[in-house]
């Protein structure tokens, strides 16, 4: 009987660990972060990947979005179409796994701050509530603010090399 209980406890612990580290049956948290970075950033820019990851984590920690990386990345109309389904060619993006693990361990892009949004740097939005904090990796990162609190209404010049390897 003791062996059976031990086996059941181990199975339960294994299941709990699997649930904590996965996003359903399809992807782990690491894989979802890699996919967000791969499809949303300039894959050659460590700064861009870490900035995208920082936004994902800001959303996870905000209480306004799903509480998991996969939940945030998989939200409809929030990230690149097919972000969780399209094929990745990881040979072309060797920094992605390292960047994803680094962000999941706590690294953040220091200039992203509390930003929870970004768009392609070339896109020009006409909203008056976008306070830009960083442009890197082909994206412009911003916070949504009350219009009277916006002090940087246009994307900043791109900057790279802030995040170390």
Protein described:
The chain is an alpha+beta fold. It has a single domain (26-149), classed as Cell wall hydrolase SleB, domain 1 (Arc Repressor Mutant, subunit A), CATH 1.10.10. Helices cover 38% and strands 13% of the residues. It contains 5 helices and 5 strands. It has helices at residues 2-21, 29-40, 46-62, 69-73, 96-104; strands spanning 22-23, 27-28, 117-120, 130-136, 139-144. Helix 2 crosses helix 3 (46-62), helix 2 packs across helix 5 and helix 3 (46-62) runs parallel beside helix 5 (96-104). It is globular and about 40 Å long. It starts with a helix and ends in a 21-residue tail after the last strand. The model is unreliable at 10-25 (pLDDT under 50).
Name the features:
single chain; alpha+beta; Arc Repressor Mutant, subunit A; three-stranded antiparallel β-sheet; two-stranded antiparallel ribbon; 5 helices; signal; Cell_wall_hydrolase_SleB; hydrolase; hydrolase activity; SleB_dom1
Number of helical runs?
Answer: 5
Q: Could you tell me the mean pLDDT?
A: 86
Gyration radius from CA atoms, angstroms: 18 Å
Instruction: Determine the oligomeric state from the structure.
Output: single chain
Strand order of the largest sheet: 3-5-4
Tell me the β content.
5-15%
The global form is globular
Q: How does the major sheet shape up?
A: 3 strands, antiparallel
State the fourth-level CATH superfamily. Answer: Cell wall hydrolase SleB, domain 1
Q: Which H/E pattern describes the elements?
A: HEEHHHHEEE
CATH architecture: Orthogonal Bundle
Overall helicity: 25-40%
Q: Report how far apart the termini are.
A: 52 Å
CATH topology-level name: Arc Repressor Mutant, subunit A
Low-confidence stretches: 10-25
Give the class from helix and strand content and strand pairing. alpha+beta
Overall structural domain count: 1
- How many E strands? 5
